[in-house]
UniProtKB/TrEMBL annotation:
InterPro entries: Myb_DNA-bind_5 (IPR028002). This is Regulatory protein zeste. Keywords: Transcription, Transcription regulation. Residues 76-100, 139-178 are annotated as: Disordered. It comes from Zophobas morio. The keyword DNA-binding does not apply. Residues 76-85, 150-164 have a biased composition (Basic and acidic residues). One of its GO terms (cellular component) is nucleus.
Length: 238
């Protein structure tokens, strides 16, 4: 659906868009899983556009509605950052404007962590809508908007909610030695088991050969007895 882009969305459309994203947080996270595929995301954005265009207000295609959501996020996060910044100032001046109900919901959806001074692009799913639904995923799944990059420069991390990144601890020498010993023990165990299997195999093979030799000897002895009897019988006839 192309259509002509309207300048402003209605408050009802804004409320519905926020509610839709709140119900489909996979679109916000922008990560594909076994249960949330590329095709699933495409269908959701298409459904969002149809629902929003059925409400009085702006008329947009799915890409324009996605851009609207990105702009709402960027504006809300910038406003939240300004509120926190103003609250830490000791001087005078007018108090900052509070977040409205819709903006509060947006903060709840995206999380209360805002970033300042880092040009880290926010995850948004990039679609190739014109392609076949079975086509491969685009090479770049994360595509920040210019507004998002600019807003990242104004935002900052709240100290009490700064994400804790766990660093992978390097293995100590004793741990590495222990792992090497365990690997060696496992190798010795496997080698021993292999040798035992070979030993049993050769034992069975030798036993079989012995039985074959014994059987041949018994056959030879039987043939010898038969030959002797035949000679005696022939002698008596003469």
């Amino acid at each position: 659906m192309s259509g002509t882009k309207s300048a402003h969305i209605s408050s009802e459309q804004k409320t519905h868009l926020i509610s839709f994203m709140q119900e489909n947080k996979e679109l916000v996270e922008g990560k594909f899983t076994k249960n949330f595929t590329f095709k699933t995301a495409q269908n959701l954005w298409n459904r969002a556009a149809e629902e929003l265009n059925s409400i009085p207000g702006a008329r947009k295609d799915w890409k324009q509605w996605r851009k609207t959501w990105q702009d709402l996020k960027a504006k809300t996060k910038s406003k939240k950052a300004d509120i926190i910044k103003q609250s830490k100032k000791t001087g005078g001046g007018p108090p900052p404007e509070d977040l409205d109900l819709g903006e509060e919901k947006i903060i709840q959806i995206i999380g209360n962590t805002v970033i300042e001074g880092q040009d880290v692009p926010e995850s948004t799913i990039r679609f190739n809508w014109d392609g076949d639904s079975s086509s491969q995923l685009p090479a770049e799944l994360l595509e920040p908007t210019e507004e998002q990059v600019e807003e990242k420069k104004k935002e900052r991390i709240l100290p009490e909610e700064k994400p804790q990144f766990s660093r992978k601890r390097k293995a100590r020498p004793a741990e590495r030695l222990d792992k090497s010993l365990k690997a060696s023990e496992q190798l010795v165990k496997l080698t021993t088991e292999k040798n035992k299997m070979k030993e049993k195999y050769y034992e069975k093979k030798i036993l079989l050969l012995e039985r074959q030799v014994k059987a041949k000897e018994e056959i030879a002895e039987s043939l010898k007895i038969i030959a002797n009897r035949l000679r005696r019988n022939n002698g008596s006839l003469l």
